[in-house]
Every structure is written in C-alpha cells, then in structure tokens.
Amino acid sequence: MASNLGKFFKPTILQSKVVIIGVMVILLTWLTAAFALDHRSVFLPGTTSEGHVLFEVSCNSCHEGFKPVTNETCMRCHEAEMAADAHGAKKFRDPRWAELLTKIDVLTCTACHNEHVHMFGRGVHLKPDLCMACHEGIITGDDASHTGFTRDGCWTAGCHNFHDHRSISTGFLRQNIDQLPMLPEPVLLERTVTGELEEAPTPDLGEEFLGSES
Ligand code: HEC
Ligand code: HEC
Ligand code: HEC
Ligand code: HEC
C-alpha cells in the first residue's frame, strides 16, 4: 500500500519541481530581457503621476540604482519653482515650527509626492486636507474670514499654492485653462443684502465728535 502511494506521488512532485523551475527561468529571462532591451516600464509598481507620465520610461531621470529618490533628484528639474518655497527649509529652520515637522516631514519631497501610487491631484498622494496637520486653527476660529471653510479646500479650491505663496493656485488655473475668458452672456451676480435695522439710526453727535469727554 505504502509503496503504491510512493509510486503515485514521486513523479508528481518531480514534475511540479520541473514546472516551477521552468517558470522561474522563463520569468528571469523575460525580466532580464526587459531590463536589457530598455522596456523597464514592466518594473513600474503603479501609475506614474500626470506631471511625470511623459518621461516615466526614463527611470534614470529619478532613480539611481536602488537608492531612494532624494530631494536633489527633484531639484534637478524643479529648482526654479522652489526658489520662493513658502514651506521650505528656510521657514522650518525657525525652532518655533520644529514640532510641526513631526506631523509631516515637509522637508522631504516624497513625503507628499511619492510616485507610482494613487494621487489626489497635482502629484500629491496625501489626502487633500494635509494642510490641517498644521493649520487646523485657520478654519476653526483663528481667522474669522476662514471659519467654517472645508478642510480640503486650501489648495484644491484654487486659493493657495503650498510652495509659492506669491500667486494664487497655478494648478487650479492650469486645470481650468480651457474655460472661456468670459461667460457667453456676462451677468452681474445678484447681491442679496439683508439688513437688520428697520429705520436709520439717529446719530448721537455729542458722542461722535467729542468722544467720551462730553
Ligand atoms: C519622476 C520621477 C520618477 C520616474 C521617472 C520613475 N520613478 Fe520610480 N519612484 C519615484 C519615486 C519618487 C518613488 C518613491 C520614493 C522612493 O521609494 O524612493 C519611486 C518608487 C519606485 C519603486 C518602488 C520602490 C519602493 O521602495 O517601493 C519602483 C519599483 C520604481 N519606482 C520603479 C520605477 C521604474 C521601473 C521606472 C521607469 C520605468 C521609474 N520608477 C520611473 C520616482 C520616479
Ligand atoms: C507637505 C507636503 C509637501 C511636500 C513635503 C512637498 N510638496 Fe510639492 N506640493 C504639495 C502640494 C499640496 C502641492 C499642490 C499645491 C500647489 O500647487 O502648490 C504641491 C505642488 C508641487 C509642484 C507643482 C507646483 C505647481 O505650481 O503646480 C511641484 C513642482 C512640487 N510640489 C515640487 C516639490 C518638491 C521639489 C518638493 C521637495 C523639495 C516638494 N514639492 C515637497 C505638497 C508638498
Ligand atoms: C527630469 C525632470 C524631472 C524630475 C527629476 C522631476 N520632475 Fe516633477 N515635473 C517635471 C515636469 C516636466 C513636469 C510637468 C510640467 C510641470 O507641471 O511643471 C513635472 C511636474 C511635477 C509636479 C506637478 C504635477 C501636476 O500634476 O501639476 C510635481 C508635484 C512634481 N513634478 C514633483 C516632483 C518631485 C517631488 C520630484 C522628485 C521625486 C520630481 N518632480 C522630479 C520634471 C521633473
Ligand atoms: C508641517 C506643517 C505645515 C503644513 C502641513 C502646511 N503648512 Fe502652511 N505654514 C506652516 C508654517 C509653520 C507657516 C508659517 C506660519 C507663520 O509664519 O506664522 C505656514 C505658512 C503658511 C502660509 C502663509 C505663507 C507666508 O506668506 O509665509 C500659507 C498661505 C500656508 N501656510 C498655506 C498652507 C497650505 C495651503 C497647506 C496645505 C497644502 C499648508 N500650508 C500646509 C506649516 C505648515
């Protein structure tokens, strides 16, 4: 009985070993060929961001061997844009903000701009409410003009750039570049002002001109 079982299994195990080794050899050959023949996109772990998709096959633009991608790599192409970085190293040298760096490592480009992963827009893979890690107060009462604003609107609504605070959001402008400069029929938005007073107030001239001295 035992020898019968042995006869049944031995060749099957041998066969499956051959198959596994065969598949591995084919895979290895295929991967080596892909590497050697410059079809490196098969090694991409995911979708590349919109801004970089044009040159994604040029892995060397960002990768040097198996080293992690550094800020220097990004700066090779983006130095000019980063010249007036409102959230750059210069700002965070101030010890007042040191603690904030523990929330998001803002000095490392890939903390917010990883690659080949899901992007929320403009090459940013952190959720759009990332500003709240440091600026929650802005919408919860520190700034009356912003109280009640949504958490994710700072840069997605077209108001702020993270890096370049001199201009309004260039990303937003780029996204809407195909919009007409003017509506087909320009209209003035209706203004609805609701007053609380029924009658004009009577001014107290003594108070207005002489202040509290009268
Ligand atoms: C625009 C720059 C850029 C280009 C071009 C690019 N990558 Fe990447 N890649 C990155 C960044 C940034 C990361 C994430 C940071 C890191 O892991 O160092 C990454 C991560 C990876 C990872 C995952 C590494 C890990 O640690 O998880 C692989 C694999 C990879 N890239 C392969 C490729 C291949 C293959 C190509 C070319 C076909 C390529 N990449 C082109 C920027 C780029
Ligand atoms: C804390 C997160 C964070 C870090 C860290 C970060 N960025 Fe950004 N970056 C953003 C956000 C959010 C946007 C989109 C809003 C905008 O356009 O400013 C952006 C936009 C950009 C843009 C597009 C600018 C434009 O006008 O559309 C470039 C280029 C860029 N980042 C490069 C870098 C480089 C280079 C570094 C490293 C020195 C870096 N970023 C570090 C969050 C970050
Ligand atoms: C070989 C040059 C090159 C390198 C290296 C490079 N980029 Fe870019 N990047 C570009 C170009 C070209 C664009 C598209 C034009 C633009 O939006 O400025 C772009 C666009 C972007 C955008 C805007 C995406 C959008 O949709 O608006 C961000 C963010 C960005 N790059 C961040 C980075 C970061 C972070 C690194 C380093 C990991 C990096 N880039 C490395 C050339 C480069
Ligand atoms: C890691 C913390 C951190 C994150 C995340 C962060 N900020 Fe800031 N931000 C700061 C600090 C610190 C200042 C300087 C505050 C000051 O000078 O009082 C600042 C200043 C600003 C300013 C004023 C710029 C100036 O003129 O100096 C704006 C606008 C701003 N941030 C917008 C944003 C937006 C939009 C986001 C998200 C895309 C964001 N911030 C994310 C820390 C952060």
TrEMBL record:
InterPro entries: Multihaem_cyt_sf, Tetrahaem_cytochrome. GO terms for molecular function: metal ion binding. The chain crosses the membrane at residues 18-37. It comes from the Bacteria. Residues 52-136 form the Tetrahaem cytochrome domain. It is found in: Cell envelope. SUPFAM superfamilies: Multiheme cytochromes. Residues 194-214 are annotated as: Disordered. Residues 196-207 have a biased composition (Acidic residues). It holds the Pfam family Cytochrom_c3_2. Keywords: Electron transport, Heme, Iron, Membrane, Metal-binding, Transmembrane, Transmembrane helix, Transport. This is Tetrahaem cytochrome domain-containing protein. It comes from Moorena bouillonii PNG.
